[in-house]
Amino acid sequence: MKRWLPNMRFISLFSLMALLLAGCGKPFLSTLQPAGEVADMQYSLMLLSTLMMVVVIVVVTIIFVYVVVRFRRRKGDENFIPKQVEGSHKLEIIWTVIPILLLIILAVPTVSATFKLADIKAMEEETRDENALIVNVTANLYWWEFEYPDLGVVTGQDLVVPTDERVYFNIKAADVKHSFWIPAVGGKMDTNTENTNKFWLEFDSKATAEAGGLFYGKCAELCGPSHGLMDFKVKPVSREDFDQWIEEMKTVEHVATTDLAKQGEQLFNERNCIACHAINGTEKRPTAPNLTNFGDRSRIAGILEHDKDNLIDWLKDPETYKPGNKMTGTYGELTEAELDALAEYLMGLSLENK
Prior knowledge:
This protein is an alpha+beta fold. Helices cover 39% and strands 18% of the residues. A hairpin with a 3-residue loop joins strand 11 (299-300) and strand 12.
């Protein structure tokens, strides 16, 4: 018994730590800190189902303890056979009706939320709302493209949306199955190659401020060696700022302002990077992210801190950071001077420097 005691203490401590850590999270990533109408509905359903399970566990535990104590075998009663009671209609009715009632309590709000989340009339052709914002999402190995078809704008990796209004999504995959998920805001939804899935999300302005103006998006479907690195970022802004961003994306004309940036621009064209990466906010490419506002993004390749040194490291060896990505080996070896010039040019692709 004494030999098992340290192990039991360790298991108890580990279980307590796991329970406490399960509640930890950041507002830009945690499903337990909802940041929109969809997330609120999903969180409420989580609380309801958890509460029901806890109540059932407590009641069953109490009954179990009572039966063990009340009807335990006592000394001297080894040969005593208690009265045999079988087929209690009252008990059978009770333990049949109670689960049915619990299922009804859970089913009603679940079905109601399901129909509400499936309400995409505003984006359908027959019932289209001209003011509805629609975003076409394309999942690629291992990056995300976001197109605003009604506004004529294309971007990649950073999704920009207005706050406090519904944003409607058409999502699909370009290669293999992925899954679009913004944990703090709602989801998740599979992206398939053979069909387009549709849904909507709403981004709360107050929750956005608490999250620092940025939410993390994830691929939630195992899709290859860099599945865990297939991140994107979401920047909810006011409707006024969003409209301004759209206008800037449409009219931006990048001009290299330093000699080093001009060398990088020349290298960008000579190495034919333009064949895969568009630098105009209205153009799209099927093989690589649009770089129009690359200098304004929050991460490089969705995972690295956004600075020049990390960009150089990425350009030097993208396979190290995202195994299986489509950029590896597409442009050949670059010298340190070429890497420095190219990084200088790319970091200058900013709407603020237009």
